[in-house]
Each structure stands twice: as structure tokens, then as C-alpha cells.
Amino acid sequence: MQNIRHTPVAPTRTQRLTSGGEIDAHHHDDHQIVYASHGIIAITTDAGSWVAPATRALWIPAGTVHRHQAHGELDLHFVGLPTTQNPLGLDTPTVLSVSPLLRELIVAYTRTPDDEGPQRRRLRAVLLDQLRVSPQQPLHLPTPSTPLLRELHAILRADPADNRSLDELGRQIGAGARTLSRHLRRELGLTYPQWRTQIRLHHALILLADQTPITAVAHQCGWSSASTFIDVFRRTFGHTPGARPPKPSD
User: Fold this and answer.
1) pLDDT tens digits for range 24-44
2) Chain centroid offset of residue 6 CA
3) Which end of the chain has fewer surrounding CB within 10 Å, N or C?
4) pLDDT category, 209, cuts 50, 70, 90?
5) Phi, psi dihedrals of residue 81, rounded to the nearest 5°
6) pTM value?
7) Is the domain covering 5-137 a CATH 2.60.120.280 domain?
8) Using only C-alpha atoms, what is the Rg of the chain?
9) Residue pair 205/74 in contact by the 8 Å Cβ criterion
């Protein structure tokens, strides 16, 4: 990432981003929670990318160089936490499940960032308690470093619906299926079907944010039917792709 901006304090604030909008590469000396109450937010680091719909939030540890990209119109909420407060005990970016209560807490806490009164301090304490029990979600799409896997990654990102076997794809890039499988297990800890599903789900979230019909999303991401896509989506995210979380209270 070029032209990396350093912001010592991770601000607590709200921000709107239009679809396709970006926040350039930067890093903080503080931890940060990033939550989009509307739309899909993606962060990218040298280690990969993480995507979060409105039922998920992103944990970004202090010092992590990252950039944001909006998919759909975004209402973003940022919560900055000093390094002395790490309720999750995590040192890598992570996607967290956001319960209805945690959603309301994040939105309420970021609504008045300059308020340092006792009521807001109590709100922060409850927010931290809820973060401690927030389940982590396997929504990380790692960026491979092995040249062969980078070639394979580029092919699948360009066309997630590519249903060729690993053996067929391997012939295109000059490697056997066993070699590619070994690299995947060693570097990413994933089988080829698991990795391909992660790529497809990331792409599906972006298409859904752009209001693409579910049947079209299933087709463009390589699932044999809309029902198969819905089943995979539900097992991963806990709800169907057509479901929308309730809007936070005003």
C-alpha cells in the first residue's frame, strides 16, 4: 500500500460513504471497531481482505495498515479503543457477529463522540462487555504469497463462477492439483473447495450490496441453483441473503 497515512488516535465517529467510496490506506496507534449499519464494508491489508454486512463488525488492531471500501451506500460507525483495552484479546483483523443489542450500543455510542458524561461511560462499559462475547466469524479472504496460488487467486477473483476442477486450473498455470492443494493447506490452511467458497461468498456480498437479485448472484458466483447458494449463505452468516437486519433506533 502506498501513501500510508498515520492517525495516532482512532477516532470514534460516524461517516457516510457512497457505493464504491474508499478510505485510503492508514493506520492508528489505537484499536478500532468498524461497523456498517447499512451496506457492506470491506477492509484490505497486506494479509488479505475482510467483508462485513450489517450483521457483522470488523476488529482492526492497533498498527494494522488497512483501507476501507464501500459496497452499497454505507452508514459507518467507528469506535476507537486504546491499546490498554482489548476485550477480544486479538492481534489480527477479525469479523465479529453483531447482535441486535451490540448494534444499538455501537450506533448510540458513536452518535455523540464528544460526550464524556457518566451515562456514555456506562454505555461504553456495556459495549465492551458485549464485544467480549461476540463470536468470531470465518470471513477472512487471505491473500496468498505463493506465485502459483496468486495466479489461481486472480483467476477465481476474476470469475468466481469458474467451475473447473483444480486439476484443470492447474494445467492452465502449469502446476498439478496435488501441488496446489499442498500449497493451500500449508499457506492458508484451507482445501480448494473451502477457499473457492470463501472467494464466492465475498463476491456474493458485494453483488448483494449492489441490489443484484439472489438468483443472479447465485449464477454469477458459480452455485448450481439459488437454493444451494441460500443454504451456503445461511450456514455461513446465520440468515438468508434476502434478510435485512432491523434499522438501528434513532
Assistant:
1) 999 999 999 999 988 888 888
2) 22
3) C
4) confident
5) -130, 130
6) 0.78
7) yes
8) 19
9) no
All three cell numbers of 83, joined, read: 491499546
What does each C-alpha distance from 229 to 98, 181, 239 come to in angstroms? Answer: 22, 24, 12
Q: Check whether 245 has a pLDDT greater than 70.
A: no
Return the domain boundaries, the chain: 5-137, 144-237
| pLDDT per position as a tens digit, 115-139 | 888 998 999 999 999 998 888 776 6
